[in-house]
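User: My collaborator sent over this chain with a note saying "see what the structure looks like." That's all I know about it. Can you take a look?
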Amino acid sequence: MTHPGTTPATPGADTHQHRTGAAAKTGAESRAGADSRAEAEGRAGSDTRAEAAGGPGTESRAEAQAGPGSDTRAGTDRRAGSDTHAGVEARTGLEDLAGAVPAPDTRDTPQSLALTAPADLRARLAAQLGTAARGWLHRALEEAAAHPGTHGPISVWELRIAEAGRRCGSEHADAARVLILHAAHADVDAVTRVYFQGTAAERRAVLHALPHLVPGPDAVPLVEDALRTNDTRLLAAAVGPYAARHLDSHQWRHAVLKCLFTGVPVDAVAELDLRAHGDAELARMLGDYAAERTAAGRPVPGDLHRVLTLTDPTATSPAPEGTRGTDGKES
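Assistant: Without extra context I'll predict from the sequence alone. Here is the result:
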């Protein structure tokens, strides 16, 4: 029954409405897709136009703005850089080493001279020397290498050892002499002659060079002679790595006491912790020395207590160092 004012339902209306909605949805999706494509094409076109705008014309304008002098200046800069680079590559020998290795802030210590490989020592020394001194050292090392060993009453390289202080300065003379001795392959006879005929400074250099030159205990008499002096710099050189390896226990203990007696810092004693560990006899000698100083109203050196602590057999034994420096022909 149809009520008045009501439009009767038409068959297929639902189907028509469904098709209309689907068409609207499809149209919306089509428009959305078209908008997306248009936006993408617009971006691509903008990029293309921007690229075209920055193309050859831009380069031409940049060149026009830079002016004709730009190429000239660029060429000059490039040539200057090339000349500088070529000059750097052309420098050889000690000047290269001087530029490659920064100069240390402090002078070489006795242990550093004995433990540093000659090649590294040469590089470090070259970095510290002036042009004239570097040139002299280079020639001296070439002479020593060309005429090693002993030649006549005195070899040329021995003369260079004598003049190293004047040529390189007293602060660098030890290192220069060590290098000359190494370059000359000085054997036990040669270093013995240089030691006993030389000044205190030359003797000190011989002691520094022993680990680089003498593989066995044949040069121990030179160390023993140095330990009989009161020259603190000579004593510091005498208790280096060569003494640590080749002095017997009795000699080594007295060397440590000599350092305490003369005020040589025990830091100069090579491998102190290894040799002092568990040494009851050294502990007894240190105790006696401390008692004598106290009885005489004199202060006990602070280093004595440090060494005494190292002799404690209950303390952890120090591990041997991985690299103990050069020894004889190993360098």
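A starting point for your reply to your collaborator: Residues 1-106, 322-331 have pLDDT under 50 and may be disordered.
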